[in-house]
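Subject: for your reference before the review

Hello V.,

The reviewers asked for a structural picture of the protein, and I figured it would be easier to keep everything in one thread rather than splitting it across files. Below is the amino acid sequence we used in the manuscript, unchanged from the supplementary table.
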Amino acid sequence: MSQNNPTLVGSVFERKPSSHSTPKAFTPAKTGFPSVQHRSKSAFARNLEGVRKAGAGRPQNAPTVAPSRPVRPMEPTDPEEWRNQMSRENEQRVASMTEEEREEERQEILNRFGAGVGDLLKRVKLAREKQTKGPTALTENGSGPLEPVPVTAKEVNDREIASKRLSPPPPALSTSSSRSSSRADRRLRFAELGPEDVHVYESAPPSPRRKALALPPPSNDGSAVPLGTFSGNLTASAEAPMKANIDVDPEEGSAEYIRRRYFPEAPTNDPNLAWMSDSLQPPDAQTSSSTLRFDLSGKPIPASLSSTLPTHLGLHHHAEGSHAGYTLDDMFLLSRSTVPAQRATMLGVLVKVARGIAAIARGETTGMEEFLGKEEEFRKRLVGAGAEAMSERGSVGARAIEVVWQCIVGWDEELATNEGIEIESPSDATISSLQLDFLLPQITSLFAQGDLLVESRSQLLAVLHRLAQHNNDFAASIVTTAKLVPSIIQTFLLTPIPPTESSPLPDPLALQLLITLANASRQNASALQDIADALLRFIAFLPSSSLYPPALATSLLTETLRFYTALANYGLYSHIATTAVEQFTHLSQYIQSDICTSQSLMIAWLDLLAAWMVCAIDPHQTTPGHEILWSQVIGWGWNSEIDNLSDRLETEERNWPVWAAIWRAHAAWLEGARVNGIRGGSSERMERLNVIKPGFEDGKEKEVVIGCINAVKASMNQITLPIGQACLPKFRTLAGHGATLSAVLRLWLSCLPPSSDLLDSPPFPLPFPQISDLCAKLTTHPSWSVLGCTEPRIRNLYVHLRPLSDLLSCYLRLSRRLPGTSKELWAAQALSIILKLLPGDEDIAAQIADDVFSLITPEWLGTLSILAPPAIWERGGMLVIKPFVAYTLRPHREFSIGPTSSTPQSISAATTLRLPSAIALRTFGLPLSLDWTLSPLDHLLRSGSSEVFKALPEDWDASEVDIVRASLLLTRICREMLCHYKLKDFVLTREEAVFGCMKVFMLEHGQNQTTDSNEEVFRDQVVGQYLTELLRPYIISTSSATLAPARGDLEQAAAKFLGTTPFYQYYTDFVALYDAISFSHPLFASLLLPPTSMRYALDYRKHLWNDFGHVLKTIRIPVDQIICEDIKEYFWPVETDPQMLASYLRGLLKQQLQGFLHLVALHHVASSVWSDLAGNNWREESASKLLKAVVAQGGHDLIREVVQYQQSATSVTLLPPQCFELVDDQIRATRFECVKRWGLQGRLQELFLAA
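And here is what came back from the structure prediction:
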């Protein structure tokens, strides 16, 4: 706008003072509180309302605009001239001040601008002078002139555009700046920079949570490089950078920002504001992480990296944000987050963490060794986190199901492959503690919803299968949970037919679950009969015509047949053979054809036929009765169908299990013909022999048998001690080959006539010498050591020993019918094989025991040179203890495990088809311990609570003496037979024999003692003779070459009988009983000493030598009659307890000990005196005191024995008198030097000279 045109706005005049409005006086509200002003009205509306209330109306006329006077522009002023003028005025003002005023002004400036204001003003003055002189002026440090940096026109244009973008837009109604001309001239001034002032830092990824801040000046740690010396490569220093001493604005929202904003007067480290800090940990704890942290892939983060990783990785979103990664507590907390994505992510991480912890439990190294020993603790928490979120929909529920699967199934997938046994173990405490009443209904509802992912459904099914394998109680809970089994059938088996692209296919694992549930108990099998009809769909459609893929159809058909076999082993659901005879006929034709190539399907079909034949042998044993009849079996012609299948079968190793199934089916048919056929099935037997005999003479069957024998030997050679989890495949191979040999022996036995006479010739030839040699090696093979393993997972491998025990029992029956087997040989075989029988073989074990008892007659014992008084036979012989042995074999009358090969009796009596777990095995009678022949003594000691005494036959009448006599006689016979045939591994151990004899004496414990000692059992002449004969092989003077080395100790031998009662308590009662009634009984006294050897705890020796020291003089056991393997176990290590040494010394000086006790006390006293005997435990002070006490109080003979005693822990033990003849001159000289130091030279010199 030009100067001639009038301006729109005229001159601006200040208001007069009278125009100021007077403030309105405050008027309180009626209520005493200020009136409320609602914020719903804007400030403009409130002002407008105020104006209206004041009565000011809107002006009606426009204001008059007066022309303004031309404004003269200000004359330009020279800044330098103005600066000089101000400088002169300041100098004049300072000159007129007094010294005090100057000092006061100086302090005021320093307080306001700081101590560095002088340097600042100096630098400003130098910069001004340099600007006046031109660009060639020197730098501050005098390093030389700085060349101006050329700036191109493009750079100027770019800078102007950037400045416009960054600067705020100008006011809409303003055309010129409102700043005064004095501020308009001012320009920003920067410090002069050189190449040494610009530094290059190592780049770091930006953090999305942090704002960009100015970089602090570099420290002297080498982490930054000056621009002038930068060559393009930057190496970060390993040292930690020093904290920058610069005051930068804190991040908005941080604790320091809040302190400065809202608490400016509070100090920096005010403890009252500690609650605002980023971490509640102390400063020292923030620098090191004590808990293992994980990234989002479940991998552990080393502690050295957790505090240095950048925050953009997403590893700081937890409560303690100073360390990267998540602890388990963080993940458990976030797994309950209300944000689904966060919750699903954390559950996914927990799956991977659980996988790593499970690897640690298996002995692998995963970098999570911090959890070693705490696996089950965290496993429980992981299962709890997953079970809590299982019912959620979407990814949260899917991840939660995967967590549960990983902790139950994926924790040890190899363990779940052991079928036929409860796999419960202490290491699975997490599974044992599951609340099934909460978990199973959840799974039921998830199946009912029908919207689970395919993978999640499969994982839940696997979880149920693993729970069913755990123990029988868990399996019963699954069956009894409302709607769970129907949901499984509907979801996994009754899928749409024909299948569509969107419909799921049937899952064979569901059938495996049904088989496991049925094997668990008879009650489960009875309940599952209701759904068995629905499975006929997999039989009606054969694999060749099925709508499913051939492999899936074959698997479904195989598992269905196995399920029907499990039901038939209880005598259940056998009527289906009649109801669906047409479908099974088509199935049989398919299996006999060349189209069928599945060995698993053939085996399942043959085993089902064998099970139905057993049910038909005695139709009264099925439930309900007469579901299948033997006449129907004959009419269906199953026997000929089996022959057709064997004709097309080859002899490769992969076909051996099929041959075993064929032989089992033939054996079942022959066993049924023997019961239901005419004249014991003689015609059927001859017909069958005409068919199978050529094959065993020189055919495929012979080739299979020979190959199987060689394979068993090879498998046995591969299994060596120690046995670990890696031996599982080897055990399976051995079990498979053993089952094949067991089947052929069963077939051979089924071809025998009903009479038990010896055979003139076998039904068909077998390699009997090789089989006999194989079974002899099998009974002593290391694979049986898993039964004594303390690790439950290894001990569960005994399920694979079941086919081997079946093989041995079949061989024992075969061996008895062979012409060359004597009674003594068969008895030795029976007494060794009975120890290898497992739960489920109780009927076989009882039959073996009866057969052994029938052998024991006066005539037979006469041939063995074993004398038995007539009183034993007058009281019934072995029949006296038969009820006790029967109870030992089967202690649980209400619980019966089905045998490997079912019988008509077992299908009605079996309550389960699974073996007990390793932890429950000790409560069963089988396998028998070596001292099973002494088990009647256990019932005598607990006659008040014994179940046998409550159910004895009415005609049973025997006394304690009769029972003890028969038990000791049976024990002696067993030992004689086993030792004669060098089966020393099955002979009673020394510890078991000692404890068994202690039981005989303990029969008097708690009895009312009378004056007639002849009533005491151990004083019976026959009992005393048998006790002496029983212990004779275990005394030191008797050759024990025929006995096995010592295994365990008395505490372990007594554990099965005593249970939780310590053996020490039993021993104290035994010693007290000796003190009360023994009257120096020599055998009783000899049993006091074994627990006092150095193999046992000090308490045993203290109890006998200190607490009952007065009975020591009654123990006169010669050295050569001690019960031990080596007398060294009483000598070494040398006793060091002062109280025991005092007891030994007291026994030598005052009690006049004799025999073995004198030697033991003398050995430990002399070994404590002389350094050559004590070794590193020698103490000269105590040694001198002991010798002085012996010299002062002992007789000449005792002093001589102590001085000249010699013994060695590594060479042959010296017995009296050789141990009192010191011949080593060096040892004699060393001892004499000690005597001289102790001042006993005068008393003992003659002994050293005489020696």
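For the response letter, the relevant points are probably these. Strands lie at 199-201, 224-226, 293-294, 300-301. The chain is about 50% helix and 0% strand.

Happy to draft the paragraph if you're swamped.

O.
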